[in-house]
Amino acid sequence: MPPSLLATTVIGSYPQPDWLIDREKLRGSLPPRVRARELWRIEEPYLAQAQDDATALAIVDQERAGVDIVTDGEIRRESYSNRFATALEGFDIDHPAIVPGRAGGTNAVPRVVGKVRRTHPVEVDDLRFLRSHTDRTVKITLPGPFTISQQAVNEAYDDEAELAMDIAAAVNEEVHDLFAAGADIVQIDEPWLQSRSEKAREFALAAIDRALAGAPGTTALHTCFGYAHVVHDRPAGYPFLAELAACAADVLAIEAAQPRLDPAVLEPIAGKTVIVGVLDLSRPDAETPEEVAARIEALLEVIPAERLQVGPDCGMKYLSRDLAYAKLRALVEGARLVRG
Known about the structure:
- The protein is of the alpha/beta class.
- The chain is built from ten helices and ten strands.
- It has a seven-stranded parallel β-sheet with strand order 1-4-6-7-8-9-10. It has a three-stranded mixed β-sheet with strand order 2-3-5.
- Strand 2 and strand 3 (106-117) form a beta hairpin.
- Helix 9 packs across helix 10 (321-339).
C-alpha cells in the first residue's frame, strides 16, 4: 500500500515506445475518438504481445522511479478514451462524423445510432496483467460518461442526458468488473467537464454518480484542461470544480502545475482526497525535487496531508520516456523531502 502521507501516482498514461507506436503521427494529430490503427508499428497477430511487453516496461519504470500507485500506462490505447468508448454497442465508428476539435482543427468522432450498452468487459484483461506484474497499489482508468457523451454525435437519443446515463450504466458495469478482477483504484477521466461546463451543470453529476454507484473499492475522478501537447493556454481557475465536492468519487485528480493554480482554488474540494498535479508537462525539462516540494508545501496550506496525493498534471503519453521518468523521479524525491 502507498504511504499514509503524500502518496505519489501517475494520472494514467505513460509514453509508448517508438518501436510500438508511430509517435510522430501520434503527436501530429488530435487524440483519436474512433480507431487509429495506423498508429501501431506492429501488425497482427503480434500487436497484443508487443503491447504486453511495452506495458511491462511502463510498470517497471514507475516502480524504479518509486511511484506508490501505478497504472498500466494505458499502453494499449490510441487515446485515453477510445479503447473503451468504441467498444460500446450503439456507437458507429465505421461511418464517423467530422466535428471541430476541442483544441482546434477537426476530428472524426463516433455517431450514436442506437441504444448504448456494454456487451463485454473491455479493460479487465489489462487490469489483470497490471495486477500480476506489481505488488504495489494499482489504478486503472476509464473515460467518464459525460466526456464520452461529448466525444460523439448523438443521432439516436432525444435527450443528451439520457445518452449520458446509458453510457454511465456501461461504465458502471466495467467499474464493478475491474474491482472484481483486483483493481485497488478505478479512475474515470472527465476533462470535458471544463470545456463544456454549462452542459456539465445540467447532467454530468448524475451520470458520474451512476457510473460509480455501488463501487466496492476506491474510486477517483480526473479533470483537467487537456494534454499540454495539445492545449497550450490554461485558465486561472476551473469553471466546474466546486460541484465535484458532492460527487460519488472518493478521490479527485486536478491539474495545477501548468496553469499555476492558486491552491486556494482547491478549498471547495478539500474535504475529499485530492491528487494535485505538481509536474508541469509543458516544460521540456524535469522539475527539481525542491521545486516539487515547494509546490506540495503550498498545497498543504489548503489540503490536509492525510488527504493530499501528488502526481503529474495529466497523462504523460506525449512526453519522451526519458523525460517522463526524470519527472517521476523528481515527484517521488520532492514528496520524500516534504514527508521528511
